[in-house]
Each structure stands twice: as structure tokens, then as C-alpha cells.
Amino acid sequence: MYGGKLRPGIVHRIDKDTSGLIIVAKNDLAHINISKQIQARTVEKTYIALVRGEIKESAGTINMPIGRSTVDRTKMAVKKDGKEAITHFKVLERYQGYTLLEVKIETGRTHQIRVHLAQIGFPIVGDIVYSNGKNPFNVVGQMLHAKSIEFKHPTTGKTVKFEADLPEYFQEVLTKLEKNRQM
């Protein structure tokens, strides 16, 4: 069984405490096909992230290699000898002290979005690992959501796109930020 006995059909993962979409294959042929698309970087994954701080640029690219931290083996870190990691972001909304981003990744390194955004000084709200434990809204989970995924269907070859709405806790935080901005 492709994907192993513990995760049959799971083609890729998202970080613990990240909400949203993952791909699950119904059979080994589909699993292999989609895995090859991921390796070829033709699967488009779009995330929504709320970060601490106000990003001035309207868009940007973070191109910093990521590897296992030598200080804390449970963490990843930007390292010169790490693997290539490329993250693109676009500002969707600015709030007082926070920025809502659309994030797309070219590579799929462990904790990539979280590490990159924390590295440039904009950690994800609720991320207990890379934001120094700060959680100003007391959310359970982090404000990172796998919003959409697009790939070629393994049988038909047609492009398919799936989307997931933001979870309720994420929406509630955005509503609070919007109300504070209007005052």
C-alpha cells in the first residue's frame, strides 16, 4: 500500500495545527501520479496566513534554504547548507499590528511557510514553535490554512482545483481585527 500502513493514500502532509486541504489518493496508481506531480512542482498549493507585524511590501518572495535546526532538533531553520525553499506571498489585508497573506510555495519543506515568515520577522499568529509562544488571540492551532490545491487528475489528466473555507476560529479573529480597524 502506497503511503504506508499508518497513512494509506496520504500523498502529502500539512503541519500539525494547520487547517485546510490535503490530497488522499484512492489507489496506488493515483498516489504515484500525484506524488510525481508534487516532485515536478506542478501542484499549486495556496495558503492563507495571519502574521504578526505589518508587512510593507504588497508581495514578495522568500528564497532561503531550510534544514534541521542544530539547536533544537524538533525545529527547522534557515541554514546555508539546507535544502532549497521558495515561498511567495501577497498581502491580502493589513490590520493594526497584523497582516493577512496569501502564500504559495514552490518547494515543500517541513514547516517552510512558518520558518520563512518567522525568519523575516513576521511569525504566524498562534504558532507556538516559531513565534516565541506568543498567541495574542488564544487560538487553538495556528493561523495558517491550506486554502486551495490544484493538480492534474491522475485518471483524466484534467486540471482540478479544490478549496476549503477558513475555519471558524480564523474568521472570528479576522472579524475582531476588522472591528478594531473601523474604530
Report on this structure.
The chain has three helices and nine strands; from the N terminus they run E-H-E-E-E-E-E-E-H-E-E-H. It has helices at 28-39, 112-119, 168-182; strands at 19-20, 44-52, 59-63, 66-68, 76-78, 86-95, 98-105, 144-152, 159-163. Strands 1, 2, 3, 6, 7, 8 and 9 form a seven-stranded mixed sheet that branches. The radius of gyration is 17 Å and the shape is globular. With 183 residues, it is α+β, with helices and mostly antiparallel strands.
Quickly list its features.
single chain; alpha+beta; seven-stranded mixed beta sheet; two-stranded antiparallel ribbon; 3 helices; 19% helix; 30% strand
Topology:
Layout: E1 19-20, H1 28-39, E2 44-52, E3 59-63, E4 66-68, E5 76-78, E6 86-95, E7 98-105, H2 112-119, E8 144-152, E9 159-163, H3 168-182
Parallel strand pairs: 1-8
Antiparallel strand pairs: 2-7, 2-8, 3-6, 4-5, 6-7, 8-9
Low-confidence stretches: none
Round the Cα radius of gyration to an integer and report it: 17 Å
| Secondary-structure element series | EHEEEEEEHEEH
Shape: globular
Portion in strands: 25-35%
Mean pLDDT: 91
**SS field, number of helical segments:** 3
How many runs of DSSP E, i.e. beta strands?
Answer: 9
Largest sheet: 7 strands, mixed
Give the helix proportion (percent range): 10-25%
Q: Which structural class fits the helix and strand makeup?
A: alpha+beta
